[in-house]
Amino acid sequence: MNELAGAFGSAMTTLGIRVLTEVIRPYNLIVTNIPGPTVPLALGAAPLVETYPQVPLFPNQALGIALSSDRHRLYWGFSSDCEILPNLGSFRDAIGEAFAELSRTQPDFQLDNQTFV
User: Fold this and answer.
1) Is 30 helix (H, G, I), strand (E, B) or coil?
2) Per-residue pLDDT at 49
3) What angle do CA 89, 94, 97 make, to 5 degrees?
4) Cα–Cα distance measured from residue 18 to residue 45, given in angstroms and rounded to the nearest whole number
5) Where are the domains of the chain?
6) 82: burial class by Cβ within 10 Å (0-12, 13-18, 19+)?
7) Band of the pLDDT at 75, cuts 50, 70, 90?
């Protein structure tokens, strides 16, 4: 990528990447984990209560999953292209059921709370 940027300039490289993602789908899923604070945070007297992570979708990308952890709590953010993955709610519910089963069957695996958006 650096060789392309050097040879064609960063503007041309960015344009080329944008064109390629419009024409082909190099991948259709992206998952990211955003570690959150390990200590309580506040803005003045207002404590940070929840976080809602999101990952942007590229053209022709089906699904984006973002996770954020905050003091033994796990927050999920789901994004989908409704034409490629029209039933995101069912997928989100299945993730919740899988983690509930994991919590029941693995006593060492416990989360205080999970939030799905």
Assistant:
1) strand
2) 85
3) 130
4) 44
5) 28-116
6) exposed
7) confident
Q: Of 45, 18, 34, 106, nearest to 77 (Cα)?
A: 34
Residue carrying the six token digits 């506040």? 42
Query: Which parts of the chain fold into alpha helices (H)?
Result: 2-8, 10-23, 88-105
pLDDT at 111: 61
Count each helix (H run) and each strand (E run) in the chain, helices first: 3, 6
Q: What angle do CA 50, 61, 9 make, to 5 degrees?
A: 100
Residue 46: pLDDT band (50, 70, 90) is very high
Q: Give this prediction's pTM.
A: 0.66
